[in-house]
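Technical note accompanying the year-one report. For the benefit of new consortium partners, we illustrate the data format agreed upon in the data management plan: each record pairs a sequence with a structure-token string. No post-processing was applied to the example shown here.
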Amino acid sequence: RRGKARGRGNGQAQDEAANAEAQEARRTSERLICAVLGELCYLLGKGSLPWLWLGDPVAWQAAAQSISSSGFLILDNVEALKHRESRHFSLRCIAEPLLQEGHQKSTLLVATVSKLMYALRGSEAGAAFVADALLLAHTTPLPRLFLVELPGHCNAGELSSQGAFQRSIAHFLVAVSERLPSLLAAEGRKLPSGAHCDVQAANAEDAPAQDEEVAPQEQELQEVPKRSNAPVAYFSIAPATKKDLLETLLTRSLDKSVWVRYRTLQTLTTLATKSRTGALPREAWSRVLEVATRRMQDSASMSRKASMQLTRALIEFHPYGPALQGSGDERVKAKKLLDEVQVRLRQLQNEEAEEAEQTLADQAAAREEGGEAQPKRRRMKNKTVTDESVAMDIANALQEEDQCDDPEAERERKRAALFRMRDCYVQRLHFVELIDSAESRLRALLASRTNTDVSEAIHVVVELRLKGVPAATRAFDQVLGLVWSRHAPIKDAAVDAFNKMHLDGHDAASAVESLLEMYAQGFSGGTWTYTHLASVQELIQLSAERSFLDVKKVLPQLLLAIEGPHGLMALRALTAIATAAPKEVAAQLFQLSLLLGPKGTALGTTVVEVLERLQLTCELLKCVFTKHKGPLPAESRRHLWMLLQHTICSLVEAFARETVPSVWFSCAQAAMDLTFEIALCPEADDPMQQAPEKLWEQILCRMMMTVNGNRGFALGNGSEDEECAEEMGDQWEQVNASRLGCIVFVAGHLAIQTLIYLEALQSALKRKRMADEDARMEQQREAKKLKQQAQPKKKGKKGAAAPAQEEEDDAGAEVSMGMAGQEEREAEAFAEVAEYGLLFGASSLLDRAKPLIFACLLDSKLKREPLLRRLGAITLCKYMTVSKKFCEANLQLLFSILFPKDKDAPVLPDEETADTIRSGNSLHDICLRQSLLVAVGDLLFRHPNAVEPWTNKLYATLGQTQTKEDDREANDLRLTALLVLTHLVLNDMMKPRAVLLVRALWLTACTHEPTARVARILFQELSKRSTNVIYNLLPEMIARIPEHESSAGRVEGGAEARVQFVMQFVDKEKHIEGLVEKLAIRLEQAANTCGGKAEQGQATQATQGEASQTQGTPTKSPMRRRSKGPEESAEKRFAKATVSALSHAIGGMNYTDRCILRLHDVVVVRKAIHTALSFHEVSRECILSIVEKCRKAKAGPKAGDGGAPVEEVPAAAAAGEAPAGGGGGSKGISGAAAGALDAIEAVVVGLAKGKEDEADQVTAAAGEAAKVAKPKGKAAAKRAASVEVIDDNPGFEEAPAKAKGKGKGRGRGAAGKAAPAKGKKRRAVGADDDEDADEDYEP
């Protein structure tokens, strides 16, 4: 072979042969090492050699030292240490001399401990090697001596200065806890007494084998020998040593390394779970719990997870009794017990003193009289009923001590027992107080964005609930809401928690009892809302679907519970089960009709009880009807209709009474919903089932006639409604307000249900028409196929059959066009009925109810009743939802109710609030305003174009409109408005506006936590959108932050904190480049406004298009520093606040190489923000902070460095300082970026001194230095091709033209061309870049 490649194959073969030879040599070396070490082990303990060594102790000492030293030689060879057999024989060489009996091993033990300590300071593999050595020698004093020596090498100074030793100590503690958990036990284990360090080993038949597993060894160590003369085969450590080790662990929980903190918490968890061996002393549980709760706020997720696992273990295995109620009777009892212990101790002291005095007196009397004194009897005092339990506990604790005859010894034992009891209860109270204080941290973790935080917090809360801690009640209520989480692990954890609390380990009867008790506690405590009810129903449904709940066994128990005191709770549970198992519940409708039908046994005695049960029954029936797959059986359908008729009759009977209860409205709504739901069923055969609107129109008409004395409501409509309302006001004042409210409510709900029914009919007609068309097309295809098969194939021209085919296609197209036209005509007809027929028809009963609705809102006497005012407003919104014409005509009235004229009036005292609401002032009727806010959200979705001009008033509710900032009603109103707007924005029913997001941004720091949480969720969800909503609106948001600061109310942090919060959602390099340009333009305009050069509001109205026209020539402000006058204009104050916000926004982003070059172009080349840098210190500080942050960026930790996990985040990143560099990773920033940073710093420093010319000179020098530093050579040129070199316009370079031709003159033409003007080039390139950065989004 010839050429450069000759011999390449031979070289590869030689390399393979060399590798094979090296591997064989390594295997041979390993075999030799194993053989030598094995023979050394046998030298001391094989056969009769131990007996021979007894004759020469001096020789044995020398041999033992040499053999033990040979075992440590493997630590110098890392490859040999990885070999399992070599490692095993090395460990045997270390342990075998120590296991020999009959020899003095003090010197050998000291030498071995010293070598093990040296090994622990060596490589990281030495920790596991030392732990294995202690495991093999566990029957010798070696473990105890090593642990005694270890604390002397773990002082704070030595550990902080030696990071490798820290990690080695952590690995060793973890390895020891895994191999020998009983090594850390302290109580009940004593060493044999003796002056020397030798111990008696077990006999050969009782000693465990050296290669046994860890579990049998631990079991043998913990067993007490049955024979009295058996040698001791266990070890223990002194309490002082154990205390030192525990102190080391607790100190390591504050280590700066995440890995050390994580492994320390894991070790503490292992110790806490070893409750049988008492590995963790009882007095240390409170301190460990304090460490665990503090670590719940760790910056690393793995440490937070380990801390919650430790907290869970501490709660599960705590030594303070079966329950930890912590408050109420238990805490009172503990305090009384402590007081009683103090009283008993004082009694013992008094008794001792009295007995001493009596003894002296008796002795003196005996000496005088020569007789003996009679002992004095003691009598117990009567105990009250309150102190019986405390006295009983103390008596039980002192029961064993009462059996002693010696009074003095008895008192000493009682005193010791009382001291132990006091210490135990003090520790118990401290333990419970720590749990109470951890509730807020657990609730915060339940709202974390990290799935592991939420899952582990759920487990801790469940454990607290199982232990009966009241502090976990609110946290568990929060766990219920996590069933709606979109993350499957969190949702599964919530379902598992519910199952563990109420279903796991329970039979059907006890499970039902637990569920009903949960409902009862939620209602009686007053903490549950409709959200909790919906969450519990969802949890029961999921439990039934996942077979956690046996539906067939639970249903009979729930039906029995309906007749009991918790009948309402049983109906709610039945509704939840019906969602998961509608077929099984439908089979029980007959039994349900016997309980709740006519003459039912579980209806209740009062009208309120009857209506409550019938309302829940209708909801249950609706759930069964909608969730059942396929049509219901005829028998079940008959029972369902019977129950519905009974509900309607009960509603009519309740309306006929003088006063109608409030539950009537919810019952009527449930009955009407079920009626319209049944009408959509094809199996509906009854005329009343097929026309539900006629049924309820008849009911409404009869109600009107009853109220109006059988004369009906012969009122006008249209524009005459308000006039008729004023004329009929005196007549309606004589009618009970609750009955008028029933008419208004039924009219409004009938209107909205009829609209839903019409839309459902339209969809059903469309589906039927499409099904008929599909069937017709299928029939035509079959007929065509049969026709083609019947006709014989004729020969002819190719295009002979074309006309017939075209005729058939034309006929099919005509049919399709006819179907499309039919669909359009149907849509127009339904829209006409909904728009005009329902509310403006000549014979419409809903139209006749308009005067009453307006009277409830406008009549001065009727609107005094809160019920009529609220029902009238809600019914008005329902009417507006049905008809756009009615909506446009009454928007002014709606917003006048929602935002009355006296909105700036101060909040009235509590005693005057009720009178104000009764007088018709809607400002203080927060319930009405909250309901109207929700209704306005529905109108925004239904008629967006009509309601859009009024949205600014809706946005204003997000501000602080009340004088009393901490007013609960104002916070609730603002929260409702934010929830409505968040729902509309996140469901794409409304486009987010900058003014809305700015107000929501201020609410993220609101002192009202629910409002702040919803605002943060809004930004988090928007940041996940692919439309880049936050990026597109961010410049205007930042500029408007000071504008809304005054209306934000009381918040935590100022505008700077809000800027930092919103800038965390900008992380793409492309977006950061675009924001540098946009924010710089607004910053310069705001700075000019401070000097009086720009008009007010110019900074907040700048656009990218306007900016591109002004980028050609930088603006130099002739403004000079002037002293602040006593009265500074509001315009300048606002402009200064805007400058500060924009400066912090520029400084709050993470800059890569490209972003640094773009900032260099803005600051140095175009001088776009020189005015701001010259006259505003905050702008200079923010730019210099960028320079400092980018220069400090270093390479992140390598994976596995120092035992740290890959997930560990550097401290700089945790503090918000992301490393700069365009994807450079560990290489840091490029040379071009470093030069740009120097130039930026020089300009800022020069402008700070007022020397702009000097800054220009320094900038030019930095640019020339960067140009000179060019790489040499082809390879260097290729590497530098991707790095942008600083020039006059970095970041905007044009792509070099492709070379044409060859030879020496290939670049002369290009060099001779005139360069384009810098301003034009900058504008053109900047415009192209902005087109790439911006998205097609209209705010």
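Partners are asked to follow this layout when depositing records. The chain is about 65% helix and 0% strand.
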